[in-house]
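Before the break, one more example. Copy the sequence into your notebook; we will annotate it together after we see the structure.
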Amino acid sequence: MFTNRPIRPRRSVPAILLAALAFLAAGLVVASPAAAAPISNPSLEIPVACPGARAVIQVTWEGTRSARVHWELTDSGADRESPVIKMVARDPSGAGASWVFPDGAKAFTLSGGKGSSASGVDSWDPAGIAQFNHLEISVRNGADAETAECSVVRKIYNFSRLAYADALSQSDKSYVLNTAGPNTFDCSGLVHFTYNRVANFPNWSRMSSAQQHSWASSAASDNNSDLSNLHSRDAIKVSRGELQTGDLIFYDGHVGYYAGDGRMYSALNPTLDIGYTDVDYTTPLGYYRVVGVTS
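Here is what the structure looks like once it is written out:
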């Protein structure tokens, strides 16, 4: 015996497939990253992260007032909050100029859910500040209309290029052993004097070139693999091929700044005073970059 039952209309298989494909396509569009190739040899690359939001920042200092910056922001949480990133260039006084994203906003909000990411890269000569002392990065998990689950701020300092620029301004001074300015210098005295004149640099005590080498080597050996534990005054070891202007080159009994094009700038001796010589005038002991990162 058959029971009379209402006949329910069936959705056709093609309609179901089309709806599913439309849903997937919409998800792909939202999650699609605005990809930008990373910098191949940055001055520094560090993570800036809190639960649910992770950014990786690369900066290459191009001088005392400009930098090339690559950022990548990823949604690393299973919540529904949207990661947000802001970047500000600061001068020694703290005055700032904001990075402007392609849509004209001073903050970028990532949508698309867990695993989605976006990135960008550009050279930056910030208007309104005379000296690019540090880059301030703010990352939070939660847009303005949402509940901010976490937030973090990190500052990356332009110590090496600023110290090197100040060292260049001492080129008319003379070499005198065991002096550290302001009128005469030996090699480690020039490095000590010029770094201590950089705004926000944590002053260090007078050291010989051997002691400076020991400090740099020890500081670099303590670094995490992702450089997530850098301090306000720190160092990273670099290879010969990674050298950038302003890096320190150590020798047996000597230290100088890398000046580019295979040259070293230093207070060399009483005959040459302060100036340039070939990096390989004698065998280098190592290459280091003085950096600073604070929260």
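The first helix runs from residue 13 to 31. Residues 85 and 108 are 5 Å apart (CA to CA). Try to locate both features in your own notes.
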